[in-house]
Write a structure and sequence with these properties.
Layout: E1 2-13, E2 16-28, E3 33-37, H1 44-51, E4 59-64, E5 67-68, H2 74-84, E6 85-88, H3 100-111, H4 116-126, H5 142-154, E7 160-164, H6 172-187, E8 191-195, H7 199-203, E9 207-212, E10 215-221, H8 243-259, H9 262-300, E11 304-309, E12 312-314, E13 317-319, H10 329-338, E14 342-357, E15 360-369, H11 373-376, E16 383-384, H12 389-393, E17 398-401, H13 403-410, E18 419-422, E19 425-432, E20 447-451, H14 452-460, E21 467-472, H15 478-492, E22 504-508, H16 509-552, H17 554-562, H18 567-604, H19 612-638, H20 642-647
Parallel strand pairs: 3-8, 3-9, 6-7, 7-8, 15-20, 17-19
Antiparallel strand pairs: 1-2, 1-4, 4-5, 9-10, 11-21, 11-22, 12-13, 14-15, 14-18, 14-21, 16-19, 17-20, 18-19
Helix pairs in contact: 3-4, 3-5, 4-5, 5-6, 8-18, 9-16, 9-18, 9-19, 16-18, 16-19, 18-19
The structure holds adenosine-5'-diphosphate (ADP) and magnesium ion.
């Protein structure tokens, strides 16, 4: 079955070369039971590791069932190993957090065989652990643990079993029981190679090989080979390999491992948790503020152009707006008639004044506007009415009052129909303006609005209007309208070509909105980069913990490899753990962030708005942090040499 020829194995220890095996040749037949004995350091374990495909020789040939295997890669060896070989170690090497049954089933994770659960129970029964199959290794005696390890070595129905001093850590009663089990397995046809120190253990075998200084010293047959070796062949069904079930299994494994170490897991996800919570909260508050500003801006009117006369340059010196560029109500009418895209206009004057009702006084802003002012600025009163063009032409003394003014001079009285004085002139209140709230510049409700002609001729004594509001039908036509208005006005007011630059100013609400948008975008980028930094810090925390975990679990990695895990399996296992940590941290962060947002919203009264996209983004970002920062430790684990890992203390 197995034949090695002229095998050598040497280790470099700094300057020296240790020849652990020197020119060893050996043939092992099916069904044999071989004991290898010799003083410590004579190369027994090294030989067994090479025979067991855990290690490759420096030189020489190794044929397993006729196939040359001395030059296979680590992954190819892993596959061959789990299909043909079982290992039993002196230190048992059971995984401490798993029950006996789970330990026995562990190799199935890598060999992807189905129907293992019944067989595992069956094996535990046969090795006498049946009743204790749900106990963890630390609840079992040494002899019991070794029986579990034997059951584990049998789960993939190996042709060969290698046992390195399996009774070295056991009392004599347990030793006898273990040897009886091995004998029985050999009687069933499994080939056994056992390394031992003890003469009586060696004498139980069919063939005894003694080693010294890396070479075979003697080789004697104690009992004949069995006459007929029974066929032992793996007859378990291959599970259909599916990448999703595989990923699910590793994630599940990750959860279990992490759950077993709650404090550490919790601490390692803290960075991600805080980072994600900060992202969620910052974005929600930022978005809320932005929405509020947008709402305020749109209340100013988004299709609105405001025309004012600008400074006229005469002889290179800029002067106050000259007589030529002063605006009149007729200018507004003219523009509306000439340009199709102008829907409404309102010619406005502004001023400040003292309003009085009974014994109350209040200084406020006075706006004189056309009848369309309400439409343009979305100020249709819910109580009372706005004034009409007829009121304007009659120069009626009627007024609409803002809520701040109402509160200041009327208190709880109903203002509708009451007479108030504005700069000592009597006005009748015909409507109350809808409440707009305060923006960052001023209180928009601290205002009274009267017809523009009344304002010009009866109150403020102005000949010209201060500005003309123009509502454009469509935001896309704003720019064209702007240019056209300027040229119309320049012609109409006969502004000399040299002075046209800046003769009329047009303010565009869309521009202001864009500016606000830009600044809030800058803010978001700023907040997001702070959040990204905190997530990266969280990721580094995870990497740190994972590296510690890899070092701590080196023996576990070696064991997993010895029972058939490929590099990818180990990589996937550790990657799954870091992804689970960061994803769970991410989800907890989302929940925490949401709670913070709700708390801030209700305590401060700020507008907040959590977007689904920020939640999804935060989750995937944190999961990718897990992958990115988990790769290095996971790769480090997967590249460990199985022998070095197993020998790790
Ligand atoms: P045994 O199992 O018979 O006690 P080993 O096979 O473990 O002996 O070791 C044989 C020799 O090889 C010893 O001298 C040991 O120090 C050396 N050796 C084993 N593994 C390594 C290693 N990874 N690096 C360096 N030397 C090693
Ligand atoms: Mg040894």
């Amino acid at each position: 079955m197995l034949k090695i020829e002229h095998i050598t194995k040497s280790y470099k220890m700094g300057e020296n070369v240790v020849n652990a095996l020197q020119d060893v040749s050996l043939e092992i037949s099916d069904g044999d039971y071989i004991a290898i004995m010799g003083p410590s350091g004579s190369g027994k374990s090294t030989l067994m590791h090479i025979l067991g495909l855990l290690d490759v020789p420096s030189n020489g040939s190794y044929k397993l069932n006729g196939r040359e295997v001395s030059h296979l890669t680590e992954d190819e060896l892993a596959v061959l190993r789990r299909e043909t070989i079982g290992f039993i170690f002196q230190q048992f090497n059971l995984l401490p957090r798993m029950s006996a049954l789970e330990n026995v089933k562990l190799p199935l994770l890598y060999s992807k065989k189905e129907g293992g659960a019944d067989y595992a129970n069956n094996l535990l029964d046969r090795t006498g652990i049946g009743k204790r199959s749900f106990h963890k290794p630390n609840e079992l005696s040494g002899g019991q643990q070794q029986r579990v390890a034997i059951a584990r070595s049998l789960i993939n129905k190996p042709l060969l079993i290698f046992a390195d001093e399996p009774t070295g850590n056991l009392d004599s009663v347990s030793e006898k029981e273990i040897l009886a089990i091995l004998k029985e397995l050999n009687d069933q046809g499994i080939t056994i190679v056992i390394v031992t120190h003890e003469e009586e253990v060696g004498l139980q075998a069919r063939r005894l090989i003694r080693m010294r200084d890396g070479a075979i010293q003697s080789d004697e047959r104690l009992a004949p080979l069995p006459f007929k070796t029974s066929e032992v062949r793996a007859n378990l069904q291959n599970k259909s390999a599916n990448i999703f079930t595989e990923i699910f299994e590793y994630l599940n494994l990750g959860f279990k491992t992490l759950a077993a170490n709650k404090v550490r897991t919790g601490l390692s996800m803290l960075g991600i948790l805080i980072g994600v919570a900060a992202v969620i909260a910052m974005l929600a508050i930022g978005r809320g503020a932005q929405k509020q500003i947008e709402a305020q801006l749109s209340s100013l009117g988004s299709n609105l152009l405001v025309l004012r006369s600008g400074a006229v340059r005469v002889g290179g010196v800029s002067q106050e707006s000259g007589a030529t560029t002063r605006l009149s109500i007729d200018d507004g009418q003219y523009i509306k008639d000439q340009i199709d895209s102008v829907k409404y206009f309102s010619a406005n004057v502004n001023g400040r004044g003292q309003v009085a009702f009974q014994n109350k006084n209040w200084s406020t802003q006075i706006i004189g506007g056309s009848a369309n002012y309400a439409r343009i600025h979305d100020l249709m009163p819910q109580t009372g009415r706005f004034f009409t063009e007829a009121d304007n032409l009659k120069r009626s003394r009627i007024v609409l009052v803002g809520m701040t003014v109402v509160r200041e001079i009327f208190g709880n009285q109903n203002p509708l129909g009451e007479m108030i004085k504005i700069n000592k002139v009597n006005f009748q209140v015909v409507g109350i303006l809808p409440e707009k709230g305060a923006n960052s510049f001023r209180d928009q409700d601290d205002v009274v609005i009267i017809p523009v002609l009344t304002a010009m001729h009866r109150l403020l004594g102005k000949e010209y209007v201060d500005s003309i509001d123009l509502e454009i039908t469509d935001p896309t036509k704003m720019e064209a309208a702007e240019d056209k208005i300027k040229s119309l006005m320049n012609t109409r007011h006969r502004v000399a070509p040299a002075q046209r630059e800046g003769a009329f100013e047009i303010r565009n609400m869309a521009d202001i909105q864009a500016a606000v948008q830009q600044s809030s975008n800058t803010m978001s980028v700023l907040l997001s980069s702070i959040a990204a930094i905190s997530l990266v810090v969280g990721g580094i925390g995870i990497m740190n913990i994972m590296l510690v975990s890899v070092t701590e679990r080196t023996r576990e990695i070696g064991l997993r490899k010895s029972i058939g895990a490929k590099r990818w399996d180990i990589l996937a296992q550790f990657l799954a753990e870091s992804v689970v940590v960061s994803a769970v941290g991410g989800i907890s962060g989302i929940i925490l962030g949401w709670l913070v947002v709700v708390a801030i919203g209700s305590l401060s009264g700020w507008t907040t708005s959590i977007s689904i996209s920020s939640v999804v983004l935060a989750f995937f970002f944190s999961a990718s942090i897990g992958i990115i920062f988990g790769i290095y430790p996971a790769r480090k684990a997967s590249l460990l040499n199985p022998i070095d890992a197993l020998r790790h203390e």
